[in-house]
Specification:
This protein is mainly alpha-helical and 65 residues long. The longest helix has 21 residues. It contains two helices and no strands. The chain has one domain.
């Protein structure tokens, strides 16, 4: 199985320089992607999804009154 990169070609770092605002991966995860096993890639994708979910919950329009 080949795991595709989660990159969506919106390559811009967050204000705190910790993750890409497009794919939500860290610089280390992005740089190491091609060297990771499929199992490791799945873990990176899950971590990036969790980061995205947390970020979206903190946005004003995503909050419920």
């Amino acid at each position: 199985m080949t795991i595709e990169s989660p990159c969506i070609n919106v390559c811009q770092m967050s204000a705190d320089k910790t993750v890409c605002t497009g794919c939500h991966r860290s610089l280390t995860e992005i740089a190491n992607w091609r060297h990771l096993t499929d199992a490791e890639k799945i873990l990176v994708i899950a971590a990036a999804q969790e980061r995205r979910d947390i970020l979206e919950c903190n946005l004003p329009y995503a909050q419920t009154p």
